Amino acid sequence: MDTTKSMQSIQTYWNWRATSFDKSSSRQRSWWQVYNQILGRRQKLHILDAGTGTGFIATGLAENGHTVTGIDLSPVMLKQARKATVGKNLNLQFLAADGTDPPFAPSSFDAIVCRNLLWTLPDPALAIRRWHQILKLGGKLVISDGIWRSSGLTAKIKQYTRLLSSIMKKGVTNSTPLRFALAYNSLHSRLPYFNGLHEESARELLLNSGFTQPVQHGHLFPRTPYPAEYGSHFFVISAIRQ
Protein backbone atom coordinates (compact mmCIF):
# COMPACT_ATOMS: atom_id res chain seq x y z
CA MET A 1 0.00 0.00 0.00
CA ASP A 2 1.42 3.41 -0.96
CA THR A 3 1.67 6.35 1.42
CA THR A 4 -1.45 8.09 0.10
CA LYS A 5 -3.62 5.02 0.62
CA SER A 6 -2.05 4.45 4.03
CA MET A 7 -2.88 8.00 5.10
CA GLN A 8 -6.42 7.60 3.79
CA SER A 9 -6.77 4.45 5.88
CA ILE A 10 -5.57 6.29 8.99
CA GLN A 11 -7.88 9.24 8.30
CA THR A 12 -10.78 6.77 7.96
CA TYR A 13 -9.88 5.28 11.33
CA TRP A 14 -9.80 8.65 13.13
CA ASN A 15 -13.02 9.70 11.44
CA TRP A 16 -14.59 6.54 12.86
CA ARG A 17 -13.05 7.14 16.30
CA ALA A 18 -14.38 10.70 16.48
CA THR A 19 -17.73 9.74 18.00
CA SER A 20 -16.15 7.79 20.88
CA PHE A 21 -12.86 9.65 21.27
CA ASP A 22 -13.95 12.01 24.05
CA LYS A 23 -15.13 9.09 26.18
CA SER A 24 -11.61 7.63 26.14
CA SER A 25 -9.94 11.02 26.70
CA SER A 26 -10.54 10.94 30.43
CA ARG A 27 -10.28 13.77 32.93
CA GLN A 28 -10.48 16.53 30.35
CA ARG A 29 -10.85 19.27 32.95
CA SER A 30 -7.50 18.36 34.48
CA TRP A 31 -5.89 18.84 31.04
CA TRP A 32 -7.46 22.30 30.77
CA GLN A 33 -6.18 23.25 34.20
CA VAL A 34 -2.63 22.04 33.55
CA TYR A 35 -2.29 23.61 30.11
CA ASN A 36 -3.71 26.91 31.32
CA GLN A 37 -1.36 26.85 34.29
CA ILE A 38 1.64 26.26 32.02
CA LEU A 39 0.65 29.07 29.65
CA GLY A 40 -0.32 31.54 32.38
CA ARG A 41 -3.62 33.16 33.20
CA ARG A 42 -2.83 36.88 32.93
CA GLN A 43 -1.86 37.50 29.31
CA LYS A 44 -4.30 36.52 26.57
CA LEU A 45 -2.49 34.54 23.89
CA HIS A 46 -2.98 33.46 20.28
CA ILE A 47 -2.57 29.68 20.48
CA LEU A 48 -2.34 26.88 17.90
CA ASP A 49 -3.58 23.44 18.98
CA ALA A 50 -1.88 21.02 16.57
CA GLY A 51 -3.72 17.73 16.20
CA THR A 52 -6.72 19.13 18.03
CA GLY A 53 -8.95 16.08 17.48
CA THR A 54 -12.37 16.83 18.95
CA GLY A 55 -11.01 20.08 20.30
CA PHE A 56 -11.28 19.66 24.05
CA ILE A 57 -7.82 21.14 24.75
CA ALA A 58 -8.52 24.06 22.41
CA THR A 59 -11.89 24.64 24.05
CA GLY A 60 -10.42 24.69 27.53
CA LEU A 61 -7.83 27.27 26.46
CA ALA A 62 -10.42 29.43 24.70
CA GLU A 63 -12.67 29.34 27.77
CA ASN A 64 -9.75 30.85 29.68
CA GLY A 65 -9.85 33.86 27.35
CA HIS A 66 -7.22 32.89 24.76
CA THR A 67 -7.69 33.05 21.00
CA VAL A 68 -7.24 29.50 19.72
CA THR A 69 -6.91 27.81 16.33
CA GLY A 70 -7.25 24.03 16.30
CA ILE A 71 -6.06 21.99 13.31
CA ASP A 72 -6.52 18.33 12.46
CA LEU A 73 -6.55 16.04 9.42
CA SER A 74 -9.84 14.33 10.37
CA PRO A 75 -12.91 16.22 9.12
CA VAL A 76 -15.21 14.21 11.38
CA MET A 77 -13.10 15.05 14.44
CA LEU A 78 -13.33 18.72 13.48
CA LYS A 79 -17.09 18.41 12.98
CA GLN A 80 -17.36 17.06 16.53
CA ALA A 81 -15.22 19.94 17.79
CA ARG A 82 -17.37 22.59 16.11
CA LYS A 83 -20.57 20.94 17.31
CA ALA A 84 -19.35 20.91 20.92
CA THR A 85 -18.61 24.65 20.87
CA VAL A 86 -21.75 25.95 19.18
CA GLY A 87 -23.17 28.90 21.10
CA LYS A 88 -20.21 29.29 23.47
CA ASN A 89 -19.05 32.59 21.93
CA LEU A 90 -15.36 31.72 22.13
CA ASN A 91 -12.41 33.09 20.14
CA LEU A 92 -11.93 29.66 18.62
CA GLN A 93 -11.74 28.23 15.10
CA PHE A 94 -11.10 24.74 13.74
CA LEU A 95 -9.34 24.12 10.41
CA ALA A 96 -8.44 21.05 8.37
CA ALA A 97 -4.64 21.11 8.12
CA ASP A 98 -1.52 18.98 8.50
CA GLY A 99 0.13 19.31 11.91
CA THR A 100 3.54 18.68 10.38
CA ASP A 101 3.31 21.74 8.12
CA PRO A 102 0.61 24.14 9.38
CA PRO A 103 -0.39 26.74 6.77
CA PHE A 104 0.58 29.81 8.79
CA ALA A 105 3.11 32.59 8.35
CA PRO A 106 6.23 32.87 10.53
CA SER A 107 5.67 34.33 14.00
CA SER A 108 1.89 33.78 13.88
CA PHE A 109 1.37 32.39 17.39
CA ASP A 110 2.26 33.17 20.98
CA ALA A 111 2.04 29.49 21.91
CA ILE A 112 1.56 26.07 20.33
CA VAL A 113 0.22 23.01 22.13
CA CYS A 114 -0.08 19.43 21.02
CA ARG A 115 -1.24 16.34 22.86
CA ASN A 116 -0.40 12.83 21.64
CA LEU A 117 0.54 13.94 18.15
CA LEU A 118 4.28 13.24 17.88
CA TRP A 119 3.86 9.45 17.80
CA THR A 120 1.60 9.75 14.72
CA LEU A 121 4.07 11.74 12.60
CA PRO A 122 6.46 10.32 9.99
CA ASP A 123 8.88 13.22 10.63
CA PRO A 124 8.31 14.72 14.10
CA ALA A 125 11.59 16.63 13.95
CA LEU A 126 10.38 18.46 10.83
CA ALA A 127 7.11 19.28 12.56
CA ILE A 128 8.87 20.80 15.58
CA ARG A 129 11.15 22.88 13.34
CA ARG A 130 8.07 24.16 11.52
CA TRP A 131 6.36 24.99 14.83
CA HIS A 132 9.49 26.89 15.82
CA GLN A 133 9.08 29.04 12.69
CA ILE A 134 5.44 29.96 13.26
CA LEU A 135 5.97 30.83 16.94
CA LYS A 136 6.81 34.39 17.92
CA LEU A 137 10.13 35.04 19.65
CA GLY A 138 9.69 34.11 23.29
CA GLY A 139 6.73 31.92 22.37
CA LYS A 140 6.10 28.65 24.18
CA LEU A 141 5.60 25.14 22.81
CA VAL A 142 3.82 22.63 25.05
CA ILE A 143 3.86 18.99 24.02
CA SER A 144 2.50 15.89 25.70
CA ASP A 145 3.06 12.30 24.67
CA GLY A 146 4.29 9.04 26.19
CA ILE A 147 4.88 5.32 25.72
CA TRP A 148 1.68 3.76 24.42
CA ARG A 149 2.79 0.35 23.13
CA SER A 150 5.46 -1.95 24.54
CA SER A 151 7.70 -4.32 22.59
CA GLY A 152 8.71 -7.86 23.41
CA LEU A 153 6.90 -11.21 23.67
CA THR A 154 4.96 -10.43 26.85
CA ALA A 155 3.69 -7.18 25.37
CA LYS A 156 2.63 -8.95 22.17
CA ILE A 157 0.69 -11.55 24.15
CA LYS A 158 -1.12 -8.80 26.08
CA GLN A 159 -1.80 -6.96 22.83
CA TYR A 160 -3.37 -9.96 21.12
CA THR A 161 -5.31 -10.89 24.25
CA ARG A 162 -6.79 -7.39 24.37
CA LEU A 163 -7.51 -7.57 20.64
CA LEU A 164 -9.37 -10.90 20.91
CA SER A 165 -11.27 -9.72 23.98
CA SER A 166 -12.37 -6.57 22.15
CA ILE A 167 -13.51 -8.51 19.09
CA MET A 168 -15.48 -10.98 21.20
CA LYS A 169 -17.09 -8.19 23.19
CA LYS A 170 -17.79 -5.61 20.48
CA GLY A 171 -17.49 -7.51 17.21
CA VAL A 172 -15.20 -6.84 14.25
CA THR A 173 -16.91 -3.62 13.22
CA ASN A 174 -16.72 -1.90 16.62
CA SER A 175 -13.39 -3.24 17.89
CA THR A 176 -11.13 -0.24 18.41
CA PRO A 177 -7.89 -2.31 18.75
CA LEU A 178 -8.65 -4.22 15.54
CA ARG A 179 -9.54 -1.17 13.50
CA PHE A 180 -6.45 0.63 14.82
CA ALA A 181 -4.22 -2.31 13.86
CA LEU A 182 -5.67 -2.50 10.36
CA ALA A 183 -5.34 1.27 9.85
CA TYR A 184 -1.69 1.42 10.90
CA ASN A 185 -0.55 -1.97 9.60
CA SER A 186 1.08 -0.61 6.44
CA LEU A 187 2.45 2.62 7.90
CA HIS A 188 3.64 2.03 11.46
CA SER A 189 7.14 1.03 10.35
CA ARG A 190 7.53 4.54 8.91
CA LEU A 191 6.55 6.24 12.17
CA PRO A 192 9.72 6.58 14.29
CA TYR A 193 7.74 6.91 17.52
CA PHE A 194 4.85 4.58 16.75
CA ASN A 195 5.19 2.92 20.17
CA GLY A 196 5.53 6.32 21.79
CA LEU A 197 8.48 8.28 23.12
CA HIS A 198 10.11 9.15 26.43
CA GLU A 199 10.58 12.65 27.77
CA GLU A 200 14.32 12.45 27.00
CA SER A 201 13.59 11.96 23.29
CA ALA A 202 11.20 14.90 23.30
CA ARG A 203 13.77 17.13 25.00
CA GLU A 204 16.34 16.19 22.36
CA LEU A 205 13.91 17.03 19.56
CA LEU A 206 13.16 20.40 21.12
CA LEU A 207 16.78 21.37 21.72
CA ASN A 208 17.85 20.25 18.23
CA SER A 209 15.11 22.45 16.74
CA GLY A 210 16.24 25.64 18.45
CA PHE A 211 14.04 25.60 21.55
CA THR A 212 15.45 26.34 25.00
CA GLN A 213 14.51 25.90 28.65
CA PRO A 214 12.57 22.61 28.45
CA VAL A 215 10.52 22.12 31.62
CA GLN A 216 8.57 19.06 32.77
CA HIS A 217 5.00 19.64 33.98
CA GLY A 218 3.60 16.15 34.53
CA HIS A 219 3.68 16.68 38.28
CA LEU A 220 0.89 19.25 37.94
CA PHE A 221 -1.63 16.43 37.50
CA PRO A 222 -3.02 15.29 40.86
CA ARG A 223 -3.30 11.79 39.37
CA THR A 224 -2.58 10.08 36.06
CA PRO A 225 -4.98 11.59 33.49
CA TYR A 226 -5.30 8.38 31.46
CA PRO A 227 -7.32 5.18 31.88
CA ALA A 228 -5.42 2.36 33.61
CA GLU A 229 -4.78 0.40 30.40
CA TYR A 230 -2.59 3.22 29.06
CA GLY A 231 -0.23 3.09 32.02
CA SER A 232 1.53 6.11 33.50
CA HIS A 233 4.44 6.62 31.06
CA PHE A 234 3.42 10.04 29.79
CA PHE A 235 4.97 13.49 29.97
CA VAL A 236 4.08 17.13 29.50
CA ILE A 237 6.98 19.39 28.60
CA SER A 238 7.30 23.01 27.49
CA ALA A 239 10.10 24.96 25.82
CA ILE A 240 10.70 28.49 24.58
CA ARG A 241 11.55 29.87 21.15
CA GLN A 242 14.50 32.24 21.73
Question: Would you write up a description of this structure?
Answer:
This protein is α/β, with parallel strands linked by helices and 242 residues long. It has one domain: 3-Layer(aba) Sandwich (Rossmann fold), CATH 3.40.50. It is built from eight helices and seven strands; from the N terminus they run ααβαβαββαβαααββ. The chain is globular and about 50 Å long. The mean pLDDT is 86.
Note the run of SSEs as H and E. Answer: HHEHEHEEHEHHHEE
Outline, from the CA principal axes? Answer: globular
Largest sheet: 7 strands, mixed
User: In total, how many domains does the architecture comprise?
Assistant: 1
**Relative strand content:** 15-25%
Taking all Cα atoms into account, the compactness measure Rg is 18 Å
CATH superfamily: Vaccinia Virus protein VP39
Strand order of the largest sheet: 3-2-1-4-5-7-6
* Broad CATH class: Alpha Beta
Helix content: 40-55%
Given helix and strand content, the structural type is alpha/beta
In CATH, the topology is named Rossmann fold
CATH architecture: 3-Layer(aba) Sandwich
What is the average of the pLDDT values? Answer: 86
Task: Write the SSE topology.
Blueprint: H1 3-24, H2 28-39, E1 46-50, H3 56-63, E2 67-72, H4 75-84, E3 92-96, E4 109-115, H5 124-134, E5 135-146, H6 153-174, H7 176-184, H8 199-208, E6 211-216, E7 234-241
What keywords describe this structure?
242 residues, alpha/beta, Rossmann fold, 7-stranded mixed β-sheet, 7 strands, 20% strand
